[in-house]
Amino acid sequence: MLIAFNKPFGVLCQFTDRSQPPRPTLAGFGLPPQVYAAGRLDHDSEGLLLLTDDGGLAHRLTDPRHKQSKTYWVQVEGEPSEQQLRALREGVELNDGRTRPAQAMRIDTPALWPRDPPVRFRKTVPDAWLELSIGEGRNRQVRRMTAAVGLPTLRLVRVAIGEHRVDGLAPGEWRVV
Q1: pLDDT, tens only, 56-79
Q2: What pTM was estimated for this model as a whole?
Q3: How would CATH label the architecture of 69-161?
Q4: What is the sign of the dihedral through the CA atoms of 113, 17, 44 and 157?
Q5: Which one-letter DSSP state was computed for residue 126?
Q6: Class assignment of domain 1-67+163-177?
Q7: Which residues of 19-30 are buried (b: 16+ CB within 10 A; e: fewer)?
Q8: Which sequence positions are flagged as catalytic?
Q9: Alpha-carbon gap, residue 162 to 31, rounded angstroms
Q10: Hey, what long-range contacts does 163-168 have (CB within 8 A, 24 or more apart)?
C-alpha cells in the first residue's frame, strides 16, 4: 500500500512523540495501521509525504540511487539573482559536502493553502518563490542550500516525489495511490 499525505506545518513525521508537551504526530490523521513514512519532512516543512507498509517500496522511494526527484516550492527572503539560481543548479557547498546539481527556477506565487501560523510579512524585505528539485535528501538540505546562496527559506512545501504529487490534498488529507 502507498499513501500520499499532505503533512501540515508543525506535524512530526512519526506516530509518537515523547517530548513534553507532546507535539502533533501522524497518529492524529486516521492513517491505516502498519504504515510508516518513506522519507521525512521536518516539522516546519509542509506538503507531500509518502507512507507505506512495504519496506522494499520505501527503500526504492528514498534511496538516491533510484533517482526519485523531490520537488519543492520554496518561499525565500530576498530577490533571487541569476547567479544565485545558477549556484543552486550547479550544486552548493555545505558543511557536509557539495550537493548534487538541482533544478532551480523562479516561479510566480503558487496557489497554496494558508499556513498556520502564517509566514511573517515584512514590508521592507522582499520575498520570492522558487521551484527546486533535488535527487538527494540530506537533513534540512533545501533550507541549507537556499541559505548558502543568500536566500533564507521562509516557507517550504514539497509538492512532488517522482511522479507522485500533493495535488488535490488539503493539509492533513491523504489518499491511497
Answers
A1: 988 888 887 777 899 999 999 999
A2: 0.94
A3: 2-Layer Sandwich (3.30)
A4: negative
A5: -
A6: alpha beta
A7: eeeeeeebeebe
A8: 42
A9: 22
A10: 164/2, 164/4, 164/48, 164/50, 165/4, 165/48, 166/4, 166/6, 166/47, 166/48
